[in-house]
Write a structure and sequence with these properties.
Layout: H1 8-18, E1 23-27, E2 30-33, H2 34-50, E3 58-62, H3 67-79, E4 82-85, H4 92-101, E5 104-110, E6 112-113, E7 116-117, H5 118-125, E8 147-151, E9 160-161, H6 162-165, H7 171-182, E10 189-191, E11 194-195, E12 203-208, H8 209-223, E13 231-234, H9 241-254, E14 257-260, H10 266-276, E15 280-283, H11 285-292, E16 307-310, H12 317-327, E17 331-336, E18 346-347, H13 354-359, E19 363-364, E20 370-374, E21 387-393, E22 400-401, H14 405-411, E23 418-426, E24 432-437, H15 451-458, E25 464-474, E26 478-487, H16 495-503, E27 514-517, H17 531-542
Parallel strand pairs: 1-14, 3-4, 3-5, 5-8, 8-9, 13-14, 13-15, 15-16, 16-17, 26-27
Antiparallel strand pairs: 1-2, 6-7, 10-12, 11-12, 12-22, 17-18, 18-19, 20-21, 21-23, 23-24, 25-26
């Protein structure tokens, strides 16, 4: 295992040196060795450098889970640029916001996936694109954006072709690149993932090279290590810290293969695990449930599976037991993570019983990952076994939110403690049990959704007077959105019309599943809606089980 890499660019160089001919990526019929991965990352880095990308520049990346994600990520890391992951399910408005707020100078993207045309979305955001020379975009909406690089089957006006750039070999540029890579430091920002957090607009989380390195080394050690013989199947999207770390970075530390599935599909995952003899699977409870419920589940040989991670949402004991019994995963771990906490804060350990894996999120990955719970009213530290807000401190904490110092100061106090907004209990063994959330963020399929962001969209509907959005239980997704809507006097609209209105303005996982019309919003004395009361009403009215 590579345990002393200082930056993510150095990581891929060391992996190529240590395991040059080992499979790094398996995607459909393509096999990419670590040497090939490094070479392609180097060539793309050289091309980006020639296009003017320098240390600290933001480069947005919009791909499904493809090998090109890894090429782009390591290329940007080598230059000292900052990766800005863009979720492929985002709407035009959401993509525009992230490109604009991040000050991205370059966008690397796929042209389309299934029914979504990303080039058309880029043109909608930047109508100047077609008339621009590649590399010289002058966008009214995105003044920083100059380069658009597209991976696809054909060329597009105003853009560079990804496949052509990755084949460019220029010795002089490579010398400049090597010099640039030498100037990258462990404490430099590597990625700027955006999270919904607790306010309406997503926030860019400044995360460093050393934070990703520490998390992955801690995870590998905590799960009982991987070797170059392991084959990891990770279904979570690479645009999310969970999928990116497990699917791209973790394998590189130990020479393992990343068996890629472009977008989660239960049947395809089962087929891949069997065909490629995968030893590890990482996914949310929703993903595991869909695989276990697949009508052809019993026909697949999953005997190669040795370990697994189930995370991003609560998992009942019965599900943990079923995964172990039916999928044969002997080491199944659960964990707690936040984008602001370097992907992962804590994790259960091999050998922990199903009750512990289900009801706790384990203990910190490293001794210098400090945790405590505090009284939500006084801020005083609470003893073990007492319930309070979970706070974390140490090298796992983000540098802050990009261009949002006030938001950063609200969550990181003067003593360096990050206030997670989650209610928790820490037991005598140091294990954390999450008991609830101070904030109202809900997590369909493990992805954070800010109610305020959805509410802001619903308030733009011409017939809506008042709205409150919250999460309610769902057997498959863990949680889904429910919107309580009060209409303006004399106005009518159906629940389907409300849902369709959201679909054009929000990513599909943010769109409320349930619409409940009401004119009765329980309020506090200060005028705030009491969402916990609305949640109880929604559960009763919809016939849901907690």
């Amino acid at each position: 295992m590579i345990g002393d890499a200082k930056t993510l660019g150095e990581l891929i160089d060391r992996a190529a040196e240590t395991w040059p001919d080992h499979e790094a990526i398996v995607y459909e019929d393509k096999r990419v060795s670590y040497r090939q991965l490094q070479e392609r990352a180097n060539r793309l880095a050289g091309a980006l450098f020639k296009l003017g990308v320098r240390k600290g520049d933001k480069v947005s990346v919009l791909f499904t889970n493809l090998p090109q994600w890894a090429y782009a990520e390591f290329a940007i890391d080598k230059i000292g640029g900052i990766v800005v992951p863009v979720n492929t399910r985002y709407s035009v408005d959401e993509i525009e916001y992230i490109l604009n707020h991040s000050d991205s100078t370059t966008l690397i993207m796929m042209d389309n996936f299934q029914k979504t045309n990303y080039v058309a979305m880029a043109r909608e955001i930047c109508p100047e694109l077609d008339a621009s020379e590649p590399g010289h975009l002058k966008s009214e909406k995105l003044p920083f954006l100059k380069n658009v690089i597209v991976f696809g089957d054909r060329r597009y006006r105003g853009t560079f072709d990804f496949s052509e750039l990755i084949e460019i070999r220029e010795g002089k540029v490579m010398k400049d690149l090597n010099k640039a890579q030498e100037e990258v430091r462990p404490a430099d920002i590597a990625h700027l993932p955006y999270t919904s957090g607790t306010t309406g607009k997503p926030k860019g989380v400044m995360t460093t090279h050393q934070q990703y390195i520490r998390f992955n080394l801690g995870f590998i050690k905590g799960i009982g290590k991987f070797t170059e013989k392991d084959r990891l199947c990770v279904a979570a999207p690479f645009s999310h810290n969970f999928g990116n770390s497990q699917g791209i970075l973790t394998p590189a530390f130990c020479g393992a293969a990343s068996v890629i599935i472009e977008a989660f599909d239960a049947r395809k995952c089962l087929e891949l695990i069997e065909k490629e003899r995968c030893t590890f699977f990482a996914g949310s409870p929703t993903m595991y449930i869909k695989m276990l419920r697949d009508e052809h589940f019993s026909k697949h040989d999953l005997s190669s599976l040795r370990s697994g991670l189930i995370a991003a949402a609560p998992a009942p004991v019965a599900l943990i037991e079923e995964i172990v019994a039916r999928m044969g995963i002997k080491t199944l771990v659960n964990g707690f993570g936040m984008t602001e906490n370097s992907v992962g804060t804590s994790m259960t350990r091999p050998g922990d019983p199903p009750e512990v894996v289900s009801k706790t999120v384990g203990k910190p990955l490293w001794p210098d990952y400090e945790i405590k719970v505090i009284d939500i009213n006084t801020g005083e530290n609470l003893p073990q076994g007492a319930e309070g807000e979970l706070c974390t401190r140490g090298p796992l904490i983000m540098k802050g939110y990009y261009k949002m110092p006030e938001e950063t100061a609200k969550l990181i106090d003067q003593e360096g403690w990050f206030h997670t907004g989650d209610m928790a209990i820490i037991d005598e063994g140091g294990y954390i049990r999450i008991t609830g959330r101070l904030k109202d963020v809900f997590m369909p399929g493990g992805l954070n959704v800010s109610p305020e962001e959805v509410e802001n969209v619903l308030f733009t509907h011409p017939r809506v007077k008042q709205v409150a959005v919250l999460g309610v239980p769902d057997e498959v997704m863990g949680e889904v959105g429910a919107a309580f809507v009060e209409l303006k006097e004399g106005k009518t609209v159906s629940d389907l019309e409300i849902i369709d209105f959201c679909k054009g303005r929000l990513a599909n996982f943010k769109v409320p599943r349930h619409i409940i019309f009401t004119d009765d919003f329980p309020m506090t004395t200060s005028g705030k809606i009491q969402k916990f009361i609305l949640r109880d009403r929604a559960i009763e009215r919809l016939g849901l089980s907690c």
